[in-house]
TrEMBL record, chains A, B:
Name of the protein described by the UniProt record: glutathione transferase
Alphabetized InterPro entries for the sequence: Glutathione-S-Trfase_C-like, Glutathione-S-Trfase_C_sf, Glutathione_S-Trfase, Glutathione_S-Trfase_N, GST_C, GST_superfamily, Thioredoxin-like_sf
Keywords linked to the UniProt accession: Transferase
Assembly and interaction partners: Homodimer.
Catalysed reactions, as listed in the record: RX + glutathione = an S-substituted glutathione + a halide anion + H(+)
Organismal lineage: Eukaryota, Metazoa, Ecdysozoa, Arthropoda, Hexapoda
GO biological process: glutathione metabolic process
Matches recorded under PROSITE patterns: GST_CTER, GST_NTER
Enzyme Commission (EC) number: 2.5.1.18
Enzyme class label: transferase
GST C-terminal domain: residues covered: 81-200
Length: 200, 200
């Protein structure tokens, strides 16, 4: 088994999907939680000045989705064909389009402008993505692709909290209930359930 | 050989990387160029209401990077190991971070605000990404990863025009000359050279 150190801040954010995948894969790993006061010291020593970062037998890699896809392939969570892998990738990228649109507004520092942008997006932008994703998950029996568990489900399970933060629609869970099915499917895996309970 | 139809607007934009990869792979494909007046009619018939779209033996897929990664795997442009594939993915995602930051400002409709945001990003945001990417390419002998040709190089070759549009730094090519090496490496492949000349 390779020696793995996973570094991220002490939050789910963009790191949890990777922690969940490592847990699913039965990979022992050091779950290194970075504090914001120590981050400036570590930052220049990371590949891109970004977290999360994973070290595999001493070699460092960055970029949350790239790491999740890698772990998904390693643990057999990518389907059987290249077209299967493409279907997961495209659906995850649609999810990312939505999250990035939300994050862009979330980072706006002018509060009045932020409010206007959110009002517009909640009316005209977010619902289209959410309806599409909800219907994709419905069609795939509570999964993001292929009708079965893939690494993309771990992205939803890990990042749905962040999604709700940057896409602030109070009725999001009631209106688009399929996301919760994915989360429940992931957290009902025994090793993931045990991991989750150990973090409470 | 599967029947492939590739649909995008009549521009390089986010489609060219896929056209170049299909050409590299020797895949015959219908290069369907959508006009903006016909797009509203096609839009609801695409997987996500987005272009590019690829149809492989009648099945449709969306999302430019997902398609490029798929074609890269199909044509042996992903290295040998899962870690190789991860290295390409993370470096391409860093490129995408830069492009998305640029695109976010590019889409700003308030011209005065756009100018302020660009001035700030050109000073404090873009150079960090460009220096990092330039140094990655230098280290990889004119490639984005693995020290050899991968599908990531086709992303740079296809999208560098778009990058320059959304990251408007007049001296970008002089200051970060490694990008041009990647482009030259891709366009010196005989089939790509022939394709490129046929489009002039």
């Amino acid at each position: 088994m390779p020696k793995v150190v996973f570094t991220y801040f002490d939050t789910k954010g963009w790191g949890e999907q990777c922690r969940l995948l490592l847990t699913y894969g039965g990979q022992e790993f050091e779950d290194r939680r970075m504090t914001h006061d120590k981050w400036p010291e570590l930052k220049p020593k990371t590949p891109f000045g970004q977290l999360p970062m994973i070290e595999i037998d001493g070699k460092q890699y960055a970029q949350s989705l790239a790491i999740a896809r890698y772990l998904g392939r390693k643990y057999g969570l990518v389907g059987d064909t290249l077209e299967d892998a493409l279907e997961i990738d495209q659906n995850v990228d649609l999810l990312m389009d939505l999250i990035l649109k939300g994050a862009q507004i979330y980072r706006e520092s002018d509060e009045a402008r932020k409010e206007t942008l959110y009002a517009e997006a909640i009316k005209n932008v977010f619902p289209g993505y959410l309806e599409k994703l909800n219907s994709i998950i419905e069609k795939n029996n509570g999964h993001i692709a292929l009708g079965k568990l893939t690494w993309g489900d771990f992205v939803i399970a890990g990042a749905f909290g962040s999604l709700k933060m940057v896409v602030p629609m109070p009725d999001i869970e009631q209106k688009y209930p399929a996301f919760q099915k994915v989360i429940d499917n992931v957290y009902s895996i025994p090793s993931i359930k045990a991991y989750s309970e150990s973090k409470k």
